[in-house]
Amino acid sequence: MTEEKRHVSDVAEAERRARFGALPDRIRLEDTVEERPATVPDPARDTYNPDEWLVRSCL
C-alpha cells in the first residue's frame, strides 16, 4: 500500500471513528413518556346518578 493511500484511509477511518465511534447517550424511560389527560373532563358527565333508574322504574 502506498503512503498516500494509507494516509487517505487513515483520515477516512478517523472521520468514521469521530462520527460512529461511540454509542449515543442512554435516554431514561421517564424522559420518553408524557402523561396528560386525553380529553377535557366534562362536568355534565359526572352528574348521572346510577341509582336513578331504580326511582323511575320502581315507583
Question: In brief, what are we looking at here?
Answer:
The chain is mostly helical and 59 residues long. The chain has helices at 3-20, 52-58.
Number of strands: 0
- In DSSP terms (H or I, runs of 4 or more residues), the helix count works out at 2
Shape verdict: rod-shaped
**Helix amount, in percent?**
40-55%
Structural class: mainly alpha
Largest sheet: none
Using only CA atoms, what is the Rg? 33 Å
**Element-level helix/strand string:** HH
Describe the structure.
The chain is mainly α and 59 residues long. It is 42% helix and 0% strand. The protein has 2 helices and no strands. The protein has helices spanning 3-20, 52-58.
Name the features:
59 residues, mainly alpha, 2 helices, 42% helix, rod-shaped
List the helices and strands and how they pair.
Blueprint lengths: L2 H18 L31 H7 L1
